Amino acid sequence: MNAAEIESLGQALTDAGLQIVPWEEKADLYIINGCAVTAQAAAKTRQLARRIKREHPSSLLALVGCYSTAEPQEALACGADLVLNNLAKDDLVELLLHSGLIPRAPRDTEGECAEEVYPPVADKASQSARREISATHASVGLASETHTRALLKIQDGCNSRCSYCIIPTLRGRERSKPLSEIRSAVITLRDRGYQEIVLTGIHLSRWGHDFTPSLTLTDLLQTLLGIDHLPRIRLSSTELSDLDEGLIAVLASHAAAICPHLHIPLQSGSDSILKKMKRRYNSEQFKNAIELINKYIPKAFIGLDVIAGFPTETDSEFMETKNFIANLNVSKLHCFTYSMRKGTVAASMQQIPKQIKKERTNELLELSNIKYIEFIKNNLGNALSLLPERFDIENKIAFGHTENYLEVNVETENKLENIFYEIIITETKNAKVFGKFKV
Ligand code: SF4
Questions:
Q1: Which element (helix H / strand E) includes 402?
Q2: Which CATH architecture has domain 138-376?
Q3: I want to staple 38 with a disulfide (CB 3.0 to 4.6 A). Which of 5, 178, 339, 366 is the partner?
Q4: Given this model, what pLDDT does residue 98 score?
Q5: Distance from the CA of 111 to the center of ligand 1, in angstroms?
Q6: Distance, CA 165 to ligand 1 centroid (Å)?
Q7: What is the pLDDT of residues 41-79, one digit of tens each?
Q8: Pocket of ligand 1, candidates 203, 209, 307: which has the most ligand atoms within 8 Å of its Cβ, to mutate?
Q9: Which has the higher per-residue pLDDT, 40 or 253?
Q10: Measured in angstroms, how far is the CA atom of residue 339 from the centroid of ligand 1?
Q11: Residues near ligand 1 (Cβ within 6 A)
């Protein structure tokens, strides 16, 4: 989601005539879309901000996003010249342009602050108006210079209140980008040459629920399927509660157009912990949904988010999670060590010692490796469609992702074009996947 937003910003800056330079090159303006979902993420944002100001004191630093929303004063203390919260960040480029801050003459005073020109955080009175702007402001993102994959943000905010999560406080209630705008954005990206579009959102699968009459993600996908030469579509994540048979049926019957790739937050396999997390499903419902996907989309990549060391989690509750996942036919885990967020219900629960959280995370990572190797083995001999993303000139190897999210290495004499190649998965070595062109 943050990546989609930063790409949108990058595109807006490019459209305004600015040049995006590689990280190693010095820039006049640095933008950090800082995450605050965990305490570690916030600490990383602070570290990066301080490093930029130390290494490039005469450059302008803008801090935007969840970190700036949660900790605006800390953001300023890190040396940021401009701090914009989630409700105001879509206006960043406009603010910079109208102020003359970009392009701009070198400043006289090192560290001169732009917050005198712009209030660092949107005041409360303007927040609802800002929210309306943000709701429809998701813009087309630019993924890379090769126009391989674009991230398109179509939804923001969340109406749920999971006990460990600060996102609803930072991003507000659900807002969806209108169907017609998404359709136009997809056509624009197709015309720019993108071969794959990843639809992103905080609660992506709730897209359209805030409309009157409401729409669903299935409605959106069916509309997009009507676009000529539609780039490959990938969903960034799907909550189990929204994963109905209609959505699975669309994915199953259009596997060439919509990637058979589902990323589903599980968080815990223990019903008592799920209840404390205030998740809207139990383990039985989760298992049934995974079995339905296995049945209708057998080659789908299924990734799960799991949290290790949620407050009060006992050894036996953690074992329940491990056993539950071990018995599911899924492809990989995205393991998070629980990290306390001020302002959440879980922050006041009894916390688990650091060492135990670490050990549980490592156990989940091991389980993830087992699952992933199984998934790769199940794909050996399969014909899949590869979109090349990188090329190692020295070793003459191209890397790219298949529709079911395998990162595959293919030997090739020449750099591949930005098109799909039919390949066969041939072998796996050290968790790397190799393939060859289908003849
Ligand atoms: S569904 Fe839960 S975890 Fe996801 S953004 Fe909403 S509150 Fe956070």
A1: strand 397-402
A2: Alpha-Beta Horseshoe (3.80)
A3: 339
A4: 63
A5: 37
A6: 6
A7: 888 888 888 888 888 888 888 888 888 878 887 888 888
A8: 203
A9: 253
A10: 15
A11: 158, 160-162, 165, 167-168, 202-203
Say how many Å lie between the CA of residue 158 and the centre of ligand 1. Answer: 6
Which of the listed CATH numbers 3.30.9, 3.40.720, 3.40.50, 3.40.1000 matches domain 2-130?
3.40.50
Strand partners, 407: 401
324-367 pLDDT, tens digit per residue, is: 999 999 999 999 999 998 899 999 999 999 999 999 999 999 99
Q: What is the per-residue pLDDT across 170-209, written as a single tens digit (0 to 9) for each?
A: 889 999 999 999 999 999 999 999 999 999 999 999 999 9
Q: Give alpha helix (H) positions in 34-126.
A: 39-55, 66-70, 72-77, 92-99
**Domain positions in the chain:** 2-130, 138-376, 383-437
Beta strand 232-235 with 175-176: parallel, antiparallel or unpaired? unpaired
**Residue 348 one-letter amino acid:** S
Distances (CA, A) of 356 to 277, 313, 317, 359, 369: 19, 10, 13, 5, 20
